[in-house]
Amino acid sequence: MEWSFRPAEELSAALRAGEVTSVELTDAAIARIERDDKAINAICVPDFDRARDAAQEADRARARGEAAPLLGIPVTVKESYNMAGLPTTWGMPQHRDYVPAADAVQVSRLKTAGAVVLGKTNVPVGLQDIQSFNEIYGTTNNPWDHDRTSGGSSGGSAAALASGFGALSIGSDLAGSLRTPAHFCGIYAHKPTLGLVPTRGMVVPPSPALPVDLDLAVAGPMARTARDLTLLLDVMAGPDPLTHGKAYRLTLPPARHDRLGDFRVLVLDEHPLLPTGSAVRAGVNRVAGALADAGARVERHSRLLPDLAEVATLYMQLLFSGFVARFPVEAYEQLRTRAAGLSAEDQSLDAARLRAMVFSHRDWLKVDSQRELYRHRWRQFFTEFDVVVCPITPTPAFPHDHTPSPLERRIDIDGAEHPYFDQLVWAGLATMPGLPATAVPAGRSPEGLPMGVQLIGPMFEDRTPLRLAELLERTIGGFQAPE
């Protein structure tokens, strides 16, 4: 039987029923990787010997009557997570030989849950791109079209799942890095509420793995079904035992509704600062139509919605102000000179990004205070709505673009060029206030490329967008293997 594209939930049931062993699942996954990954290049650091050992131990544990949420399930891990004995480089050539001594907290949780880790997946340099390529491991291709990107920075994980290389993967998201690859590759991903999932051990090498509360960035699950997302999130979520975990225990509230028709949804398909491509707009409207047909309350406008242009600008300021922390002094001074030359009338996102890269601490505190005001606006919004449905990026997966400076790249939206990083405006809608967002497949473009939408929910109510994702999967379909 072919197991490669079966959900983790089904694999667990088959393992319990004795229909398959973990060794068989692991060998099948490894065989598929060895056969198909030359064209995809998703698995940049294989760990097959240890995976086979872990699979054997999982089978022995099951024979002893033991149980665990992911016992015997083959999975992959984004390269940016520390794994003892394997390199962690973040795609940076200067760190190609760095090998951490201990697992990241999320890798430890996977192993405690019984998962079999096949290896690590490819990333862009420093995790700072919407594509996944670097000098060490090369380029990860989109399984649907090898001339296009799989997304970034969790592009290797998304490509692996779309190719049948393991049932689950863990990634991270600062600028859509879970959601964009899911959208480009036709899979599911969930950006958790900020702070819900500890990130210790997912750190720029060779920095120490400290239990730091990151700003904007989260770790999260990737899967081929919505239910598998929830399964993996339940393994990942909960406070770090070194800090908050000494005092707190996690109890996520249940989803607000269990029926599609009970959801109150705001649908957005246009942004004031960037057009939405026709293919993506069609995907958003396909989801909106399915919701309306099921009896859900679907609105297109709300006085409670925060100003999208202001949110995008604030997000760019918070995001890019953090990118320059490790810049050499000479590079930082060049940025200061460029920012000083901007016209006061230039209020473009490009200008906002440049100004943010030379923020003073006083400047940053000002935008951080504005963020808190927007969080309050969102709390008010979610008293009348349950979820926002909107794009993840304005286009399906785009062709590889390795222009050295991302600031010189352009994104083509229905024949018109726009600044490359402007496509992050949709990712920032959830990231800036720290809201949960679930990426779900929403059909294919006229060229046959997968497209997704994101379901943004209330803070710490992650089960609400996850439940809606599950109900939509039953209604409009979900993952399909690349043809």
TrEMBL record:
UniProt-listed Enzyme Commission number(s): 3.5.1.4
Keyword Hydrolase: yes
This protein's GO CC annotations: endomembrane system
Domain of life according to the entry: Bacteria
EC category name: hydrolase
Alphabetized Gene3D superfamilies for the sequence: Amidase signature (AS) domain
Assigned keywords, A-Z: Hydrolase
Stretches assigned to the Amidase domain: 24-464
Keyword Amino-acid biosynthesis found: no
UniProt-recorded Gene Ontology molecular function terms: amidase activity
Protein name: Amidase
Organism encoding this protein: Amycolatopsis suaedae
